[in-house]
Amino acid sequence: MNSERTAISSEQLVILESLWDKGMTSKGKRYKTLILEAVSKSGLNENVVKGWIGNNSRKKNNRHYTCQEGYYC
């Protein structure tokens, strides 16, 4: 398993976010066409795109999270 990180440029990020807005919100088979479009347009590896989807999904899901008093967040 490769543990190297890939830097995503601002141009690539615009592409990924645009496709996210079009529905590329998961890594499953249902999203394969959008993922391949992201790979083609951004020049990123498919695993990098899928990693970004997972990270972005976690980021979006935690955006509205509020910490209850007395809990570590």
From TrEMBL:
Alphabetized InterPro entries for the sequence: Homeodomain-like_sf
Family annotation (Gene3D superfamilies): Homeodomain-like (1.10.10.60)
Top-level taxon in the UniProt lineage: Eukaryota
Protein name listed in UniProt: Uncharacterized protein
Organism listed in the record: Sinanodonta woodiana (Chinese pond mussel)
